Amino acid sequence: MSWDEWTATDAVGLGELVRKGQVTPAELAAQAAAGIAKTNPTLHAVVELFADVVADPLKDGLNPDGVLAGVPYLMKDLGPTLKGRLQEMGSKLMAGNRATADSFLAGKIRQAGLNIIGRSTTPEFGCCSSAENPAMYVTRNPWNLEHTTNGSSAGTAAMVGAGVLPISHATDGGGSIRIPAGATGNIGLKPSRGVFSIAPYASDLTGLVSIQGCHTRTVRDTAAFVDACRGGAPGEFMPYWQPAEPYTQLIRRDPGRLRIALSHEWGDYRATPHFVAELERVGRFLESLGHHVEWALPAVDFRAAFAAQTTCYISNFAQTVNNLVASLGLDAPPADLVEPINIRIWQEGMKTSFTERARMQAVFNTTSRAFGAFFEDWDIILTPITALPTPKLGTTEYLTISENPDIYDWFANLWRQFSYTPLANLAGIPGISLPLGMQESGVPLGIQAQAKQANDGLLLQLAAQIERALDGQWNLGRKPGVHVTQG
Q1: Structure confidence by residue, pLDDT tens digits, 54-107
Q2: What span, in angstroms and rounded, lies between the C-alpha atoms of 427 and 455?
């Protein structure tokens, strides 16, 4: 098909073409590979293309009868493992690392019919805001090549944003689905806890803030992915819940009149005037759809919440790095193979006491309860996806190649930029970035909607209502400069 036809057809649409026999999975894979070849020399978003499953999509267990049968898909080079495939996590330390088994979610993805054709870029261990280490790769934003995609789902964001794929894998420990989606004009849902399994190597109890998901260009693709891939593996520590009806059915109906809160003043953090104006514009648009919109804020101790979140990241991440280092027979991360900030996080996190973790958990509890109380009165809270503009490439203060000697100062700097996404991970609530705004640089500005735990379907229902009202014209009807339909 032409590139215009390709980008006008979403993942569900491609799956329907496969089931009708109008196109084969191999033809879809070949076109996606051609799109990668066309755009990746500029964007540097794909680490590896699996030539064998491009040639033979059924080779690794793709379900030809799945709802997304034959649709090409990239796996972020972090998180779910693929048996026999490299997973190098954006790190020199893990070069040549091959997985010995599929993770549970990888099996669900294949059962849905998705054809995993390669790996997309991520910062080292997914720990910073940009896939931007010149010694590894520098992933560029298709909307403005001087800017980052943000992260950590960097390569996925660039490839979906550039029209190469309709859907691709992403993960989110504090905004890593939503933030890059917001900067590249994609739809990015971070679901509630108890939706996607991270078995067998971790669980919602041990992962605590980390969640799986995807980027898409249409709401129905996100709904189809969640419907097909959700569910717990045997032996989960906590129950995995199911909605009353599949999201692909739910989103066909508009929600009722919603109580929508606007907010951008989260403790010490404030959005730029331009971002506030974009948020207000979207609020007025939602009023025109019949919803009640006004300014409101959860009664959260934001300073305490972000401090607890920092403790969680440092202590969890230190153990992750320690396990990787130990598996290689090393006592410490080597300075020539691991980026400076990640070494400092490891050093600090290995000192975290049980008492500090218990205090952290207590703040998680009070923060989650405060959000819960807020959502007794409000259905949705709407924020910009970030407080500050998407950084230009080379802004090292946000990167794990930073030389900042104070790891707490480094995290505090992240929170000033990425203020509105991390607490959803802490509280286990869903959040979605929708491509409704633009930054002054011409880079998209996602507007984030959050809801109470297990109200993921309401977020998708609202997103689908917006999509219909816009006649599918996200990003104000614009396309990025680097796009498969260009040149």
Answers
A1: 999 999 999 999 999 999 999 999 999 999 999 999 999 999 999 999 999 999
A2: 13
Main-chain phi, psi angles of 261, to 5 degrees? -95, 135
Q: Is the pLDDT of residue 45 over 90?
A: yes
- Whether the Cβ atoms of residue 24 and residue 84 lie closer than 8 Å to each other: no
CB 217 within 8 A of CB 156: no
**Buried b vs exposed e over 177-212: b needs ≥16 C-beta within 10 Å?**
bbbbbbbbbbbbbbbbbbbbbbbeebbbeebbbbbb
Q: Convert 447-477 to b/e letters by CB count within 10 Å (16 or more is b).
A: bbbbbbbbbbbbbbbbbbbbbeebeeebbee
The strand pairing partners of 381, in sequence order, are: 261, 450
Class of residue 337 by CB neighbours under 10 A (exposed 0-12, middle 13-18, buried 19+): middle
pLDDT computed for residue 207 by the predictor: 85
Tens of pLDDT, residue by residue over 475-485, are 999 999 999 99
Asked if 182 and 385 count as a contact pair (C-beta separation under 8 A), the reply is yes
* The two three-digit tokens of residue 227, written as one number: 């419907």
Is residue 35 classed as helix, strand or coil in its secondary structure? helix
Q: Does residue 56 contact residue 49 with C-beta atoms inside 8 Å?
A: no
Measured distance CA(444)–CA(480) in Å, rounded:
9
CB atoms within 10 A of CB 328: 12
Model pTM above 0.90: yes
Q: Does residue 206 have a pLDDT over 90?
A: no
- Two structure tokens written together for 219: 């709401």
As a whole number of Å, the end-to-end CA separation of the chain is 16
- The predicted structure's pLDDT at residue 487: 80
What pLDDT does 377 receive?
A: 98
Question: How far apart are alpha carbons 95 and 371 in whole angstroms?
Answer: 41
Do 429 and 452 touch, CB atoms closer than 8 A?
yes
